[in-house]
Design goal:
By secondary structure, this protein is an all-alpha fold. 70% of the residues lie in helices and 0% in strands. It has 19 helices and no strands. The chain is elongated and about 70 Å long.
Amino acid sequence: MAAIGNRGTVTEAANFNPDADAQKLREAMKGAGTNEAAIIEILTHRTIAQRQRIKMAYKQTVGKDLADDLSSELSGNFRSVVLGLLMLAPVYDAYELRNAMKGAGTEEACLIDILASRSNEEIKVINDVYKKEYEKKLEDDVIGDTSGMFQRVLVSLLTAGRDEGTNVDEAQAIQDAKEIYEAGEARWGTDEVKFLTVLCVRNRNHLLRVFQEYQKISGRDIEESIKREMSGCLEDVFLAIVKCIRNKQAFFAERLYKSMKGLGTTDSVLIRIMVARAEIDMLDIKAQFLKMYGKTLHSFIKGDTSGDYRKILLQLCGGE
């Protein structure tokens, strides 16, 4: 029943009783009006594994699906957070990816956020879950919904073939840095395939070495060169890969900041990260947020959201 990671704000509830929780949730929805506070209190203080047991207990004792009942009782962003919390991590990722591609237009940011930040194992499971839930291959949907070099990068990430070892081949790292430089800054036009080959395939330690070497050769940071050489979604996905390799929690902190900065809020991004990382590394994401922006994530969420939506996000954020 343990939590997925050990740096989350959501941890296992002691003296956990799924039947009692199911009963409380039932009462929160019975009669006129809904007791949102009770729903928030239970769901934000149980791990995903514990929530699965609550769902089972609810079905056994009420004879209905908990997600369906909550879905019909709640609305808007609050409902999106609650329903996300009831899903297993790979199911939630698959659901988000599916939604990003359904209907007109594609939410490329979702494809990038998920595929650039998950491990090989996580991506393999997402692929399996997607096939099972939607009776289609995730890769086929991505190919049908994206194009060009951006599509090729996503397909490469979907193969879950990144080297996850720790070895650094010094000569190869120097060669990789040189090849990326020659494929971009050193020529007219850009040979994006070289970037793909290095950024989507090599292991983390090796890439960190490549980035150092690249700085030496070109006099620029790799992120700066990507911004100069690429544009649009391709630029976004390569930058996301580099940022996740360097510091995944800083990547998520920046995504959260941008989702709330300025006019309006990109709720889809805010919800996705808060739900997906609450049990994994939210403590580190919060620390990075404070370090990078001099303000707490808590204060940002508080100032940018309202009502029950704000309350549930603040619980997932886990205090100041």
